[in-house]
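Hi there,

I know you've been waiting on this one. I reran it after we fixed the sequence typo, so this is the corrected version. Both the input and the resulting structure follow.
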Amino acid sequence: MARQEDGSYVISTYREITDTLNDPHLSCDMRSLSRPMPALEEGVKPAFIKMDPPEHDRLRRMAMRHFGPPHRPGLVTGMESDLTATVGSLIDDVAGKARIDVVDDFASPFPVTVICHLLGVPREDEPRFHRWVNDIMNSIDYDPKSDPKEKLDKGVQARKDLRQCLGGLVEQRRSRPDDGLLARLANDDGPDGRMTDDEIVATAKLLLIAGNETVVNLIANGMLTLLRHPQVLRRLRGEPDLVVPLVEELLRYEPAVHIIPWRAAYSDITVAGTVIPKGSQIMLMLASGSRDPKRFPDPDRFDPDRRDNQHLGFGSGIHLCFGGPLARRETQIALTELVRRLERPRLVADPPPYRRSPVLRGPVHLDIEQGDG
């Protein structure tokens, strides 16, 4: 662990990260910082990942009633045929091309389509959702020193447009319910009551943005890793079941999210013998923890046969990624089908260009040649 010049603390080892993520004295509410960060959207209710108990627990319970077990245990498995069909359609579009971009042609459009279907977004609205999510994702990496301000402005406008559209859909689904998540949340009177429209919109935006950035990066990182390990790629082509442990190893070895930079100490806490004062910003280096040699033997080796692989790819504690099961299955199906159907894929550039974000790890583009070339 190390204290930075700005007074924040960086934690990078596995045991200390997991202990800290499970410490009730740790806050996700940025108002708990001694120097609070400005809100990304003023006056807009945040998603529950930026809240602490008991409010976090209430909203997460309400979302999970319709997102997985115990109330909808077959949600993800019930989506498998749609996931496979969507993947197949995207690969059909690039199957005959000598050169493709795995990010633009495949990984980016896939999760937005899946989450729109999950939410119950009308099919005719999906192109707008793709555009909004793309603009938001581009704005996350905004650099005022080198990027035109239009890049940031488009992201700000996309957030407003997305929020407004989701709000309208929630109203519609209250009077004309279907089987989508928006309708289920809008009409649910469970033990915790009913979410407000603002809470439903915040939860839907969380799925769209966090679910998209995670899966895009996982697919791109996964394909890049397989092309760098051709023996594993060949093995996956002949052993499709290998994809389950392979994706777990990918989550450890090359995760989509490298850092959790937004945690605050409710009160003085002690980590690795160091007292972190109340209100301090804490940065958790998840990728480093997942390569801690004290926890994982030979941590810099990509090994899909690795046992006892309790990585930090989806975090830990009460904020463990609630979309993790869907992200896993999306990535498993995507990588299996890409490996099965692409013809002799080869990297055009290694390393490829990466996103500038220190938090989110993945190529901006992943150009691949296929066929005889």
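Quick highlight: The first helix runs from residue 14 to 21.

Best,
R. S.
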